[in-house]
Structures are given as structure tokens and as C-alpha cells.
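Notes from the pairing session

We agreed to fold both candidates in a single pass and log them together. This is the raw record for the first candidate, unedited. Please don't reformat it; downstream parsing expects exactly this layout.

Candidate A
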Amino acid sequence: MEGNLNLVGYGLSAIGGGIGVGLVFAAYINGVARQPEAQRVLQPIAFLGLALTEALAILGLVFAFVL
């Protein structure tokens, strides 16, 4: 068996990013469904969670090519 496991690591980080985004927006939708007037407060928090989760997936891609 030849090669390295960099691409497997990227695949795991992509799966983790997808699960993370799903959890962030599930919590956002649940919060807005319970209190619709809190949408203005929850929406920026949800987008911040999305950005941080996707940043980790992009870091996984970068490390897969660098290492």
C-alpha cells in the first residue's frame, strides 16, 4: 500500500464540516420556530457559526495539500 492519508483526513474534515453546518442551522431553525421575534438576534449568530465551521473544513483542505 503506497501513498498517504492526507485525502482521508480531508474527507473526514469535510464530513465534520457538513455535520457542523447541519447542527448550527438546525439549532437556528429550532430557535426561530420557538421564538420568531428572536430571529434578528439568532441570524448573525447562525452565520458566524457557519463561517467558523466552514473555516475548519477549509483548513482541513489546506493541510491535506500542505502535508
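Candidate B (folded immediately after A)
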Amino acid sequence: MHTAITGTYENGQVILDELPPTMRHAQVIVTFIENTEWTPNQGVKLGSLAQRGYSIPEDFNTLIDDFNEYF
């Protein structure tokens, strides 16, 4: 099972925002996010990636032939 928990690194310590689901021994991966304005509840805003060259194709909602038998 993989679980993501936000937290803050300060003075050589990682302070978690919530308790992990297990108190047993577990491996962890720590990712440092440079953008300090990010908050866990911010989410992705519609169109926010457009300035970075990402876009949704015009035929995004078109059914894929392989799945026609399910509709």
C-alpha cells in the first residue's frame, strides 16, 4: 500500500501534517517541492497547464472503438 502525506521540512526534521496509517517500520520517499505557495487543498485549476504547452485534444470525449461494445 502506498500512502501520501504532506508535511514540512524544517531544521533537519520532517513534520507530517497527519499520522501515517501504520506505526510499524516502513520505507518512505521524501519529495521536496520548491514551490512554497502550494497547499494540499489547492488542487489543479482548469487550464493551469495551458501555459506549459499542455492541452486537451478536441476529440477527447470521442468513444474509442475498442470500447463500443460496452456502450
